């Protein structure tokens, strides 16, 4: 590879987010739409960093009540105590349901925390123009984006429990305010991941004049896979 | 308004394509069915030619719709505590959350388990059916297909299925449980929707939409 790889933005093209058509702006246009699918075209997602920061910080704040407040209260024959996310996991462990406890722990505690940390790390690395492992950071972004929906498990469990258990004096299950906060964390982090633009990672990488890019792999234009 | 907007941008070049994750510019790869082209710089999947066609996607969407109706019309679980029987479905759960005063979660659950999957299936029918039957494009099909792509991350049927399993295990030591028709339907729905996502070739759909006349 003699010269460094050129990006669509450098060539004056815009890629449609939605239908992946490569578009070329006509002279004098500011904001416009893809000629094929009608999506609004941007060179990069608008205000990507500011938006992602705002949503990530909101999620951090919501994460506190999501873990401290009860997500539901189970009442059996008049007695009952509120359950938080963590005490729900503990209960599964006490009941000997290890695989399920691990699943719930992973979906409701590990995933949201890792997602928030990953987003913060990506935001900081772009902010400081880091050249460190762009490929790994892009993979981290893709992972963050795809794994987020799995945190909804606990919210669904509450919905089903509430639907089935309503036996008057025998047993009742009531949702708790923690569930609202937790649902908020999941939704807000999903929006945060969507508003981050992974191309910003590569924009800081553009080599200076005369410098040979060390990050282009030499096997050709693209890799084919069976 | 739309016309003047569309005129400002032109299709750059059909032979070129850019990576959506790192913006690297490429000559468009020529792929055989079943092949995948990845970005050499960041590893994102650029293009994937699927072996299946639109008929498979439509058949799966039909199956999904039938299963979706069953999954919401019948109870998920029936439980029996000391001779008293209680049944619940997804919609009764949403209703119950709403009546307990947690409208935020009830709206959220309604959207991600009911509205988004349903809208996704209906959008797919609207776009693919005229294309497959008559080779024609339905009015505003591009916009509908774009909505469908944006809706996708919010349809959480497979996550809901896992939620059902956790709930079943949690309830198992509380009472005697009988799984309802909806539980099996949800399991089937999870499979057909995932298969439908895996088989739909959106690049092909966009190209056919562009080629078809309205
Ligand atoms: Zn790339």
TrEMBL record, chain A:
Transmembrane segments: 53-77, 97-126, 147-165, 177-196
Keywords: Cell inner membrane, Cell membrane, Membrane, Transmembrane, Transmembrane helix
UniProt feature coiled coil, ranges: none
Coarse class of the protein's main subcellular location: membrane
Compartmental location: Cell inner membrane
Name of the protein in its database record: Paraquat-inducible protein A
Native source organism of the sequence: Methylococcus capsulatus
From TrEMBL, chain B:
InterPro entries xref list: PqiA-like (IPR007498), PqiA-PqiB_transport (IPR051800)
Subcellular location: Cell inner membrane
Main location: membrane
Transmembrane residue ranges: 58-77, 105-134, 155-175, 181-200
Pfam families associated with the record: PqiA
Keyword list, A-Z: Cell inner membrane, Cell membrane, Membrane, Transmembrane, Transmembrane helix
Signal peptide: none
Protein name (record): Paraquat-inducible protein A
């Amino acid at each position: 590879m003699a010269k460094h790889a050129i990006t669509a933005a450098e060539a004056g093209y815009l890629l449609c987010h939605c239908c992946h058509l490569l578009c070329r702006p006509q002279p004098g246009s500011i904001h416009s739409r893809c000629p094929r699918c009608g999506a609004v075209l941007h060179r990069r997602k608008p205000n990507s960093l500011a938006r992602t920061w705002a949503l990530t910080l909101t999620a951090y704040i919501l994460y506190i009540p999501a873990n401290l407040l009860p997500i539901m209260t189970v009442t059996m024959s008049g007695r009952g105590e509120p359950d938080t996310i963590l005490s729900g996991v503990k209960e599964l462990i006490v009941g000997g349901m290890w695989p399920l406890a691990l699943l719930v722990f992973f979906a409701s505690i590990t995933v949201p925390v890792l997602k928030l940390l990953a987003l913060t790390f990506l935001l900081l690395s772009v902010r400081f123009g880091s050249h460190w492992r762009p490929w790994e950071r892009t993979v981290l972004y893709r992972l963050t984006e795809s794994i987020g929906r799995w945190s909804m498990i606990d919210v669904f469990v509450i919905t089903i429990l509430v639907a089935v258990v309503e036996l008057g004096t025998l047993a009742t299950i009531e949702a708790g305010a923690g569930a609202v906060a937790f649902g908020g964390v999941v939704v807000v982090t999903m929006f945060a991941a969507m508003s981050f633009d992974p191309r910003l990672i590569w924009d800081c990488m553009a080599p200076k004049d005369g410098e040979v890019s060390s990050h282009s792999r030499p096997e050709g234009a693209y890799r084919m896979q069976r | 308004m739309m016309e003047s907007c569309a005129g400002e941008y032109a299709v750059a070049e059909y032979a070129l394509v850019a990576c959506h994750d790192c913006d690297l510019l490429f000559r468009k790869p020529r792929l055989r069915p079943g092949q995948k082209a990845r970005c050499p710089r960041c590893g994102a999947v650029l293009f994937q030619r699927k072996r299946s066609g639109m008929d498979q996607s439509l058949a799966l969407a039909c199956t999904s719709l039938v299963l979706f109706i069953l999954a919401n019309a019948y109870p998920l679980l029936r439980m029996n505590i000391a001779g008293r029987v209680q049944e619940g479905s997804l919609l009764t759960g949403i209703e119950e959350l709403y009546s307990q005063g947690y409208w935020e979660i009830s709206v959220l659950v309604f959207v991600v388990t009911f509205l988004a999957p349903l809208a996704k299936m209906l959008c797919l029918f609207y776009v693919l059916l005229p294309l497959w039957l008559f080779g024609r494009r339905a009015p505003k099909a591009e916009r509908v297909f774009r909505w469908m792509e944006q809706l996708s991350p919010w349809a959480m049927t497979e996550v809901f299925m896992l939620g059902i399993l956790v709930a079943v295990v949690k309830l198992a030591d509380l009472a005697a449980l009988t799984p309802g028709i909806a539980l099996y339907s949800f399991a089937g729905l999870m499979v057909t929707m995932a298969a439908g996502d895996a088989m739909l070739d959106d690049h092909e759909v966009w190209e056919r939409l562009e080629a078809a006349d309205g």
